[in-house]
Amino acid sequence: MSLLSDPGDKSAVRGVGIGLRAAHYRDFLDSQPRTGWLEVHSENYFGDGGYDLHVLEQVRSRYPVSLHGVALSIGSVDGLREGHLSKLKRLVERIDPALVSEHLCWAAIGPRHFNDLLPLPYTRQALDQVVSHVSQVQDTLRRRILVENVSSYLQFRASEMSEFAFLAEVAKRSGCGVLLDVNNVYVNSVNHGFDPQQALLEIPVESVAEIHLAGHSETGDLLIDDHGSRVAPPVWNLYEAACRRFGPVPALIEWDTALPPLNVLLGEAAIAARLSEATHA
Amino acid sequence: MRELSALQARFGAGLEVAGSQAAAPDIFHGESGQVASRFAIYRGNARANAARALAAAYPVVGKIVGGEFFSGLAREYESRFPSVSGDLNEYGESFAAFLAVFAPAQDIPYLADVARLEWRVHRAYYAADAKPFDPARLSSVPAEKQLHLIPKLHPACSLLQSEFPLARIWEVHREAHQGEFEVDFSLGPAGVLVYRPRFRVEVRRIGDAEAAFLAAARGGETLDAALTAAHSLDVSFDLGRSLGEWIGSCVIVDFTLNGG
């Protein structure tokens, strides 16, 4: 069976998908580009109505859809924001997505929201907090969510365990799945100086339910996770290692800045599908 | 320092400091110069994300003042009204109020009004959907009861008043605008109607009688009362023609009968 799943199957994500951005709406309304599934940023569809939701509903009738949150801030020391969570719940009920995910990070403190994916100190206290928030989200949505590792430029002195041991523990204790961003693993391995292959070994095999792939840029000694280019060769290598370890997990091509024509994204997805197929042949 | 609350407070306080040379918190691994330059990336991201959201909500203000000046406005605005929502489409609500008092923006007297209009347009885009009203349904209401109907406006609809020809200023600065760039400032004060027939938000100038009618409808008044309000300003206000036009453009999307 091809890894590009039958577009008629709308219930589950399989094979390789791409992130749907507004610049490509027209492509998906006018035709049915061949892709396994689509992922969108949940917050872009938090409105009461309007064009974006209309497009998402159209697309949802033809593809499995994953809702990927970027701003719930499950790592905040403050409680989750009820308004944000209830908008997410409303969207989940409206779209009936195949997957719902969020990031292992924080973004808000007090009334302020930084609208960014800020790194956490990997302490036992932060772990308790994240586990409690993930459980609250899963109870509210009445479904399992996936939690994704983020890229980072700094590491807290206070950390008591590695990022990946922390993520594994979040999954174990909350029952959530892991959305493994292979590009972020690579970016962090360069920024913080660790072996990315070893990092994969810290993640339990059965917990990974989705893989993200994206491009990054380089500035001095630092890699920036800007999702603005093709997947880099060392990230493809790491993806192959991930395919060997985690099996045929659905994968996604993310592209957010300097968005190219849809065909470029579909080309990247085809590469990912080939690599995954070769691993599991 | 190990407490999550203290670490996040330090991180957050560092993000609020203006300027890339500001000291970064000493809560991170690495030598201070490297930590400072890496921390500046987070500071830049927060600022850039807010600025991008503001530019997306206020394209006409951006076009009027130009990119460089707008960037300055965005920085100043963010320092006074930072983002408080995880949904960046909600960022920028106070921009008109900010422009109304921010000294460097006073050279363009209509700028704050343009921002007020753009915020309505921006939020109308995300407003709830409503089905068009089928005029045939009116015929089922007995003639003597028709003036007791209460018109219901589309959730995306809103009304503004300005002492400037706001709808025209908005129109000529739009990306898609072609043709004359002329704005006749002698037109005087006017009402502006923001509405969304389906998914595209429209803006148009409306007369005083139309504005009075729609304001009454928005306030839950009957057709009868709204008509009286309109006629008090303009006896030639034509109810049938206006209703037809507003139903056709989804300004009015339903009618309810008083008391049931």
Overview of this protein structure:
The complex is a heterodimer of chains A (281) and B (260). With 281 residues, chain A is an alpha/beta fold. Chain A has helices spanning 25-30, 51-60, 82-95, 124-141, 163-174, 182-192, 196-201, 233-246, 262-280; strands at residues 16-19, 38-41, 65-68, 99-103, 106-109, 112-118, 146-148, 177-181, 208-214, 217-219, 222-224, 251-254. Chain A has an eight-stranded parallel barrel, surrounded by four helices. In chain A, α4 crosses α5 and α8 (233-246) packs across α9 (262-280). The N and C termini of chain A lie close together (11 Å). Chain B has two domains: 4-125, no CATH class; 129-257, Outer Surface Protein A, domain 3 (Alpha-Beta Complex), CATH 3.90.930. Chain B has ten helices and five strands. Chain B has helices at residues 4-16, 32-57, 59-65, 67-80, 95-101, 111-126, 166-172, 208-218, 223-231, 239-248; strands at residues 149-153, 158-162, 190-195, 202-206, 252-257. In chain B, the strands form two sheets. In chain B, strands 2-3-4 form a three-stranded antiparallel β-sheet. Chain B has a two-stranded antiparallel sheet with strand order 1-5. In chain B, a hairpin with a 6-residue loop joins β3 (190-195) and β4. The model of chain B has no long low-confidence stretch (mean pLDDT 93). The chains are: A alpha/beta (281), B mainly alpha (260). At the A-B interface, α2, β5, β6 and α4 of A face α1 and α2 of B.
